[in-house]
Design goal:
Tcp11, mainly alpha, T-complex 11, flat
């Protein structure tokens, strides 16, 4: 039995120990080496294409160096139905059967058991922190392989007793999330089953230690990466002075958008008009521009960026695909909240006072909204309208309440169908309020922004929290790397202000 035994032992009660991998984007932390730059007299479009490739290659280094804040390495778990999984399981079973035969032999053969205990000792020692010298000495003494070998030669090695000591030590070393798994092992009296379970849990404890180490090193890795990525971008900028042209136009457009008041809501039906801002709100004059406002507006604009537009900011090329996905998520949430707002106005407080009904309506609508990418939005919204009206009618019938009239049903279907139009008042107001929430996330953080959600968004609070956190994580690192460049650009767009650079980099 050589190497890392925990990776070789088969899984036991996998459903108990399986961790949620989340939305991690891991990978080997090995920097990529870009090829040699070639200067030629090719067309501007070809040069622009190569420039994009260079910036992408350099920017991706941040992910290779460990900038994934949600990185949680996990041991690979093979599907039991796969050929590799079946072969692995067969080999493991054969090993444990062999160990059982050795221990039941007369006299017992402890050769395999001693190898297992030796590897368990090494794993336990590897889980210790440098300051745990006393526990290290205790493990060395209790699992002295010379003494255990002598006991085995005399046929007096009590594998079960040694295993119990190992369990007590695991209780001291394991994370709280593993307490239940260790406690379950304490009820096992068969030494082979116990050793097998110990290896399974020790494997999980090793992964816990790896994750702890990764998280402990994250601040240093992040700080190193910020300076590294900025230095590499500066090298490209020295060779290509026009490298920030698109970034400048992006921030200029954001400043222009802030100086332009939003269009008023058109007149619509009562339910839609109720969502429109009051005249007093529309009459408020825009605030003076600040670097924080311009950057926030710029990042929001990226969520709505035309996919075919080649003038994407150079400083955000690495994040373009993720921004596109966040934009699609924002779109679906806007439509979802709009649908729930309209449905609530026709359902009344009785139906929407039921969390079960609202949750079912949300799940049904979200499933239908996934079809936006494969069919015209108007057709998808027609299906949404039909399903939502059906759910409302069915729920009213189940509760023995008065059904929707024909006129109300037609009005409901019409308003839900109108949500497919970007200029629809309900949709535009919900869109503005989600944008306001995301701006607050950039300034105040997600949790504080959730405390005061704009009207109409409470029913999608969990979805907004997920979107907001992803958006904040993406923009925060980008600002840390490219803050100095944004500062210089914003100085040309905003009247001089004290502490400008500090404000940009602390966003």
């Amino acid at each position: 039995l050589g190497g890392d035994s925990t990776s070789k032992m088969p899984d036991v009660e996998e459903k108990v120990y399986q961790k949620d991998p989340g939305n991690a984007e891991g990978g080997p932390c090995k920097p990529e080496t870009s090829g040699r730059t070639q200067e030629d007299k090719s067309s501007p479009k070809d040069q622009s294409s190569r420039l994009v490739d260079k910036v992408n290659a350099v920017s991706k280094l941040s992910e290779k160096i460990g900038m994934n804040l949600d990185c949680h390495p996990e041991e690979k778990v093979l599907p039991p139905s796969s050929l590799e999984g079946r072969v692995k399981e067969t080999m493991h079973n054969a090993f444990w059967d062999h160990l059982k035969d050795q221990l039941l032999a007369t006299p017992p053969d402890f050769s395999c058991a001693l190898e297992l205990l030796k590897e368990i000792k090494e794993i336990l020692l590897s889980l210790l922190l440098p300051r745990q010298n006393r526990l290290r000495s205790e493990i060395e003494e209790a699992l002295d392989m010379n003494l255990l070998g002598q006991a085995a030669e005399q046929g007096a090695l009590n594998v079960l007793c040694v295993s119990k000591y190992i369990l007590n030590t695991m209780t001291l070393l394991c994370a709280p999330v593993r307490d239940e798994a260790v406690q379950k092992l304490e009820t096992i009296t068969d030494p082979v089953r116990l050793l097998r379970g110990i290896f399974q849990v020790l494997g999980l404890m090793k992964m816990d230690m790896v994750n702890y180490t990764v998280q402990s090193l994250q601040p240093q890795l992040q700080e190193h990466n910020i300076h590294y990525e900025r230095a590499k971008f500066q090298e490209l900028l020295a060779k290509q002075p026009s490298l920030l042209d698109h970034t400048t136009r992006w921030l200029t457009q954001a400043a222009t958008d802030l100086a332009t008041p939003p269009p008023p809501c058109p007149d619509t039906a009562d339910a839609a008009s109720a969502a429109c801002p009051s005249p007093g709100e529309a009459a408020v004059s825009p605030e003076p521009l600040s670097p924080r406002m311009v950057l926030s507006q710029g990042f929001l604009n990226l969520l709505l960026w035309d996919g075919d537009d080649e003038e994407f900011p150079e400083t955000l090329l690495r994040d373009r695909a993720r921004l596109r996905e966040l934009g699609a998520q924002l779109h679906r949430l806007t439509v979802l909240a709009s649908v729930l707002l309209v449905a609530g106005s026709f359902s009344g407080s009785v139906l929407f006072g039921s969390p079960q009904f609202v949750d079912k309506l949300k799940r049904t609508t979200k499933a239908l909204l996934e079809e936006f990418s494969s069919r015209p939005e108007a057709a998808a919204m027609l299906a949404v309208g039909e399903r939502v009206s059906q759910e409302i009618r069915q729920r009213l019938g189940d509760m023995r309440l008065a059904p929707l009239s024909s006129d109300s049903t037609v009005a409901l279907m019409g308003q839900l169908q109108n949500i497919s139009r970007k200029e629809d008042c309900v949709r535009s107001v919900i869109d503005q309020r989600i944008h306001l929430f995301l701006k607050c996330c950039l300034v105040l953080g997600v949790q504080r922004s959730l405390l005061d959600l704009p009207g109409g968004l409470a029913l999608i609070e969990a979805e907004l929290a997920e979107l907001g956190q992803k958006f904040v994580n993406l923009t925060h690192h980008n600002q840390q790397v490219f803050g100095p460049y944004y500062t210089e650009i914003l100085k040309t767009l905003i009247p001089p202000a004290q502490g400008l650079e500090m404000e940009v980099e602390s966003l």
